[in-house]
Amino acid sequence: MIHLCRRVANILSKYHGRITVDAMLVRHKNSGKHPTAGIIVIGDEILKAQVKDTNSFYACSLLYKHGVKVQKISVVRDNTEDIAEEINLFSEKYNYVFTTGGIGPTHDDVTYEAVALAFHDTLHYHSTLVEIVKNRFGCKNFPSPSYKMAYVPTKSELKFGINEATGQPFPYPCIVMRNVFVFPGSPKFFESSFQALCKEFFAFYRRFATAEVYVNANEESFANVLTAVVQECPNVSFGSYPEHSRYYKARVTIESENEEDTETARRMFCERISTDALVEYDRTPHVDCLAKYEKLLMQRQPQRRSIHESSFEKFVNYYQKPEEVWIYLDGSDESIVMVHLARVANCKLRQSSKSKLHAFYFNFDHLESGMIEFLREISDRYNVELYSLRSNESDICRLIASRPELQILLLGKRSNSNEKEIYENLTRFSDNKSPVQIHFPLIDWSDEDVSSFVVSLSLPYYTTGETQLAR
């Protein structure tokens, strides 16, 4: 039936360009089944480990949230025949195929050629793309290498997504050929374009019914219980993953086609293991953060509550003018607490959820790549405009000069608990050479206050060589 629908759609596409995609979309909406997808990552640089592939991870995450089953990911070298062979195979097996990479102006960008080869098509300079390359990319001389991005399969279509931030179409489209969607390899452009496509094409698909259980015990201690529940719930899929975390030791995933089956399986599993082993863990502490913070305060002893309230009042005062406040983000628990309280204060002040916080970090020579990744993920999660500085005064001066609105810098220093040379250097710099004020909003917090706050709200943290940030 799948092949018949695809064949009819392909015949119609000769006369009506968008029929291929739309027919497939309608069929899945009406059938109630989850469509399948395959992802092809293209580039020698991925296979040589010169560039890290993040696009497939991003795509899988979004597709899963939209109810699309990714069945396979393939990484292919920059070779026309190899790419075409993979496209042919994926196109026959899966409802949707997404490629990323290989559509630039250089000799090894051969994805468009491969798509044409896969579907026995020719290439042509698409007039719309020629105008885009000419006017938006500033390439006046035709032909030139840049116009290779306008040389696409003759029967392909252009799919311009809408940039949610601006409300305007993206400057360069996704190229669609039958059920194959061709995207750029640059994560910056891929992520925004792919997100727009998912919202348009998959917004009405039925989502997976999922649940997660966090267990503070090794897998061996509950393996028999999980095996029994799996056998008793044949319509439910389970996964078990050991994870090194401050909060738990294993994560169990439960998934089915409906909420009732998922909840029944979750309850069965939880009732059969030790209650002490179950952990309440929040993967999204930044979501509804004000309500979660207020709930936490209600559970605190009066003395501890007053310390939290006093600090939070400072953040509310700071973020009356959020553009004036910057946070020194060094990956410590204190810096994460400050970012979280800043976001809570923004919610309290009814600032737009899209309003950015501002922070910077020092990119020391010895800084671990894992730490940099962690800071960037914190930036994405909490919507932080994050600057990377070298550890010298000239960089700080340039930052202040470029952002004259910067008035207050928040450091995570506490009384006699976490003395750091960098804190002292920043304080002296401010005293001597800058009108920027240095504030220590957590100065009265004890070690227990910091640890308890982080754990109670499941805030992300970093330890050497290990990022603990729920994705």
Describe the structure.
- It is a single chain.
- The protein has 471 residues and is of the alpha/beta class.
- Helix content is 43%, strand content 18%.
- The protein contains 17 helices and 19 strands.
- The strands form five sheets. A six-stranded mixed beta sheet has the order 2-1-3-8-7-6, sandwiched between helices. It has a five-stranded parallel beta sheet with strand order 15-14-13-16-17, sandwiched between helices. A four-stranded antiparallel beta sheet has the order 10-11-9-12.
- Strand 16, helix 16 and strand 17 (437-439) form a beta-alpha-beta unit.
- The protein is globular, with a radius of gyration of 26 Å.
- The two termini are 36 Å apart.
Task: Chart the SSEs and their pairings.
Elements: H1 2-13, H2 19-31, E1 36-42, H3 44-47, H4 55-65, E2 69-76, H5 80-93, E3 96-100, H6 111-118, E4 123-125, H7 127-136, E5 151-153, E6 157-159, E7 174-177, E8 180-183, H8 187-201, E9 209-215, H9 223-232, E10 237-242, E11 250-256, H10 259-272, E12 278-279, H11 289-299, H12 302-318, E13 325-328, H13 333-348, E14 357-362, H14 369-382, E15 384-389, H15 393-402, E16 408-410, H16 421-433, E17 437-439, H17 447-456, E18 461-463, E19 466-468
Parallel strand pairs: 1-2, 1-3, 3-8, 13-14, 13-16, 14-15, 16-17
Antiparallel strand pairs: 4-5, 6-7, 7-8, 9-11, 9-12, 10-11, 18-19
Helix pairs in contact: 1-2, 4-8, 5-6, 9-10, 12-13, 13-17
